[in-house]
Amino acid sequence: MSFIQQLQAAWQSSDSLLCIGLDPDLERFPQAVASGNDSIFSFNRAIIDATHDLVCAYKPQIAYFSALGAERQLEQTITYIKSTYPHIPVILDAKRGDIGSTAVQYAREAFVRYQVDAVTVNPYMGFDSVQPFLEYQDKGVIILCKTSNSGAAQLQEVELQAQAQEVQAQQSGQKGEPVYEYIARLVAEKWNFNHNCLLVMGATWPQQVARVRSIVGDMPFLVPGAGAQGGDIASIVQAGQTAQGNGLIISASRSILYASAKHDFAEAARTQAAALKNAINQHRTKHAAAL
Ligand SMILES: O=c1ccn([C@@H]2O[C@H](COP(=O)(O)O)[C@@H](O)[C@H]2O)c(=O)[nH]1
Description:
Layout: H1 3-14, E1 18-22, H2 31-34, H3 39-51, E2 57-60, H4 63-66, H5 71-84, E3 91-96, H6 100-113, E4 118-121, H7 127-134, E5 140-146, H8 152-156, E6 159-160, H9 163-172, E7 177-178, H10 179-191, E8 197-201, H11 206-216, E9 221-224, H12 233-240, E10 248-252, H13 254-257, H14 265-282
Parallel strand pairs: 1-2, 1-10, 3-4, 4-5, 5-8, 8-9, 9-10
Antiparallel strand pairs: 6-7
Helix pairs in contact: 3-5, 3-14, 6-7, 10-11, 11-12
The structure holds the ligand O=c1ccn([C@@H]2O[C@H](COP(=O)(O)O)[C@@H](O)[C@H]2O)c(=O)[nH]1.
Family: Belongs to the OMP decarboxylase family. Type 2 subfamily.
Keywords: Decarboxylase, Lyase, Pyrimidine biosynthesis
Catalytic activity: orotidine 5'-phosphate + H(+) = UMP + CO2
C-alpha cells in the first residue's frame, strides 16, 4: 500500500485530520516519568495509548531524540506504533537535504533503519538531493514549501522573475512568483512522478495554503503550527481542504504533549487532542461523521 493510500485510509477510519507531533522534552515531563528508565519511550507510549483513536498520524521530530543520544527510544516509539496501531502512519520530521550520495543515506536512515512511512525533506539543494527519497515509491516524501515559522518569509516569499521578462515586469509593476509557489509547482509538475510527494504548508499562513491548494490539486499537505504556534484552525481548514474534506495532516506537538505537567498528563493530552480534532472537523465540508 502506498503512503497516500495509507493516509487516506487513516483519515477515513479515524475521521480525523489531526497529527500529534512527538517532541519529547525531558524538562517538561512530569517528575515521575522523567526519573524512570527509557523515560522518553514511556512518555511517548502513554501519549500514544491515550490518543490513538483521535489521530491520522504521529510525527516524531528526530532532533528531540538524537540531541540526547536517544535514537534507541525513537526506534522503540516507532516500533510501538507500528505493532500496536499498525493503521496509523508515522512521519519522521527530519527535514533532510544534502548532495545525492549523502541523501541516499538519509533516505535509508528514514525508510530502512527507522521504517517510517514518510519523511520531511528540504528542497533547497535541488532535485538530486530529493531524488533518493522519491525512489522509495511506497513512502511519502514531504517537501518544505511554506514553513510555519515567522522567518519563512525571508526566503520563501522572495519573488522570482524570469530574466528575459524581468525589466518589462518591473516597468509594468507586475509581481513575480514567490519561491514557495515555484516549489509547489516544481513538485507537482516535475518531482511527483511516483505520486509520493506531499508539501509542508504552515498553519500560520492560510492565504498561502489556499494559493498552493489551487496550484497542486489534491496533493496532501502536512500542516504544522496548529496549537502552540497559534495557527487558526477555521482559516487553515477552509483554505487547505480538498473537495473530499481532507488533504490535510494538521500537526500539533507542545499544546497536546504538555497540556499537564502532572500525573494526569496523558489524560490531559487526550482532552486537548479531542478538542483540536473536533475543532478541525467543524470546518470540514465533508467527513465521516457528517455523511
Ligand atoms: O514548518 C514547520 C515544519 C515543521 N515544524 C515542526 O513541527 C513541530 C511543531 O511543534 P509545536 O509544538 O506544535 O509548535 C516541531 O517539531 C517543528 O520542528 C514546524 O513547526 N513548522
